[in-house]
Design a protein that fits this description.
Blueprint lengths: L2 H33 L3 H11 L3 H18 L1 H10 L1 H20 L6 H31 L19 H25 L3 H31 L6 H22 L3 H23 L2 E3 L9 E2 L7 H28 L16
Antiparallel strand pairs: 1-2
Length: 338
């Protein structure tokens, strides 16, 4: 295995970790206005992700930095062609982060309502656009012989990509509901369990349609790996529905975590060894070879990754261990940070 492949795997791992961790963050934020019927309930919901959201975003920073260093040509084409969607994601994440910190600065109901909806908007926009972006990666975008993006914004809003955005939205929302069901107790826990029961079937139908659409919109469904991943994903969603009926919340969260990982793997396995498919001419696709840095840079980065990746994993594990307890609805307001 050469270093180009190693770095494709590292970046895939970082994006998968980001989608798993930030995925339930997005889901919780999307559900906030609907499950948080009172200010106290909304505070409880926000405090389930309050200690984690900023640490979870480190995975995205690490993934973006890795692309910049390992595959600079991919980074250049990606951030020029996908400039507006990525800009919208960035603005949404900034607005969402500000909302977490500013919401509790005043007890004015209008002030808190504004920031609650900011959390909702800052969660739903990335939840959709990440699915749209990765669907375009595998479907193909207009690239020229110089590996430059030559399309416009509307090229990215095609039916296949929008269906991918719907799948990611439903998946992250289900993941967030499953997370809430293991982090809260009482009425909120019951409501979160009801949401999981309502979401798994629409997700199953949407992903089934996305799998079928992938046969005509992409070239990777001929790959036995991707067909197997799609089948496993569908079986996993059926199993999730069954476990939801048994009200085993812990196992539901495990299954939604596995579903998010499979969804990320579905895209990355379909891309390899490409990183961005050219819809103009397959020969003009970006690959792990025609976009990579030199061997020296890749070797140096591998050493750095070997040091800092374990630190990042240990930090994440430590924070989840420290804040592992459920938040009871009987908690006192002054005990809540957010």
């Amino acid at each position: 295995m050469d270093l180009n492949t190693v770095w494709f795997l590292i970046i895939s791992f970082l994006f998968a970790g980001y989608f798993v961790l930030e995925g339930f963050d997005f889901g919780v934020g999307i559900l906030l206005p609907f499950l948080g019927k009172t200010d106290m309930k909304r505070r409880i919901i926000i405090n389930t992700i309050g200690p984690h959201w900023d640490g979870n975003e480190v995975w995205l920073i690490a993934a973006g930095g890795s692309i910049f260093a390992a595959f600079p040509e991919w980074y250049a084409t990606l951030f020029s062609g996908f400039y507006l969607p990525l800009f919208l994601i960035l603005i949404a994440l900034i607005f969402r982060g500000v909302a977490f910190e500013f919401r509790n600065k005043s007890e004015n109901p209008s002030w808190r309502s504004f920031w609650d909806w900011a959390i909702f908007g800052g969660s739903i926009v990335p939840a959709i656009l990440w699915g749209v972006a990765f669907s375009n990666f595998v479907r193909g975008v207009p690239l020229d012989a110089n590996l430059n993006y030559v399309g416009g914004f509307w090229n990215l809003l095609n039916g296949y990509a929008l269906l991918g955005g719907l799948v990611s939205l439903l998946l992250f929302t289900l993941h967030g509901a499953a997370y809430l069901s293991i982090k809260v107790s009482g009425e909120l826990e019951s409501e979160a369990q009801k949401v999981t029961g309502k979401l798994w079937l629409p997700l199953f139908v949407a992903f089934g349609g996305f799998t079928i659409a992938s046969y005509s919109a992409t070239d990777f469904m001929g790959n036995g790996w991707n067909l197997a991943l799609a089948i496993v994903m569908l079986v996993l969603l059926v199993t999730t529905g069954w476990i939801i009926r048994l009200k085993k919340s812990g196992w539901v969260f495990v299954l939604t975590t596995a579903a998010v990982l499979l969804f990320a793997l579905f895209f990355m396995a379909g891309l390899f060894p490409r990183v961005l498919v050219s819809g103009t001419n397959p020969a003009w696709s970006l690959t792990i070879y025609n976009t990579a840095s030199g061997d020296y840079a890749l070797r140096l980065m591998t050493i750095v990754a070997g040091i800092f990746l374990p630190i990042m994993l240990i930090y994440n594990a430590w924070t989840f261990r420290v804040f592992r307890k459920r938040i009871s609805e009987k908690v006192k307001a002054e005990e809540l940070v957010y």
